[in-house]
């Protein structure tokens, strides 16, 4: 196995809730609540879960686009969360992000050349001129765009092409780790496959590690090596994709996988329908957060937080009755 490039320990990100004219703090939205994981070199870790479970917040907190409330993030042995400004700027070259929405993540007043080249100028790698344009052409060509695209604006491209621009921007600094925050969710199915294949090819050629955030389990199974399942800000299961899809241990994971459509309409599906609504992250249930919707819940689930433990073979589960 390759070495661990990123290690996260008990990461938390709380957003304060204020009320009244004096803006008094009355609580916190616990968007990410004690997540621990690791990613190896050249590996893709898929992160799945319902909308609002904290997937995107996790990715942004790792990169310090949001400042963490607590926890530890180590990238190649370097402390990310406490790194001073100059060290963090150097880390930015190695840790990049592809945003979810290709329409709002690109500046409409900037050309492709400016969008992709901006970070190169900021980090002092290039100055404006012919050499920069030649490198930008090299990067966007690698991402499936043509050289004449560098002088065009975002509104002149399709959704898939805009996402390729976002990927090119992330690749320009030659990073070794990229957070892909639902990079295909806003695209047509045919375009999705092109972007996924592009990310896979780039990983094969450049050895990039990904955190691939998505709610599409089919896409996650195709592109990921390991998969983590989040619920209400916490990681409830983390395993290799084969172990997780073939033998899920957490009741929430089992319910998610039962909802995957089957290609054969004659095949009978055993759907697991969860009752009740997702609790508020501002006031999560005591004990196991999932006990209010779990068909196997016992008294211990209401009182005691389950340990996120390894069942063997790096199959981690947060459930009292995972065995």
Automatic annotation (TrEMBL):
An annotated Gene Ontology molecular function: ATP binding
Protein name per its UniProtKB record: Dipeptide ABC transporter ATP-binding protein
Organism in which the protein naturally occurs: Tissierella simiarum
Keywords on record: ATP-binding, Nucleotide-binding, Transport
Organism superkingdom: Bacteria
UniProt keyword annotation of Nucleotide-binding present: yes
InterPro entries, A to Z: AAA+_ATPase, ABC_transp_ATP-bind, ABC_transporter-like_ATP-bd, ABC_transporter-like_CS, Oligopep_ABC_C
Domain ABC transporter: 6-257
PANTHER family: ABC TRANSPORTER, ATP-BINDING PROTEIN, TRANSPORT ATP-BINDING PROTEIN
Pfam annotation, one family: ABC_tran
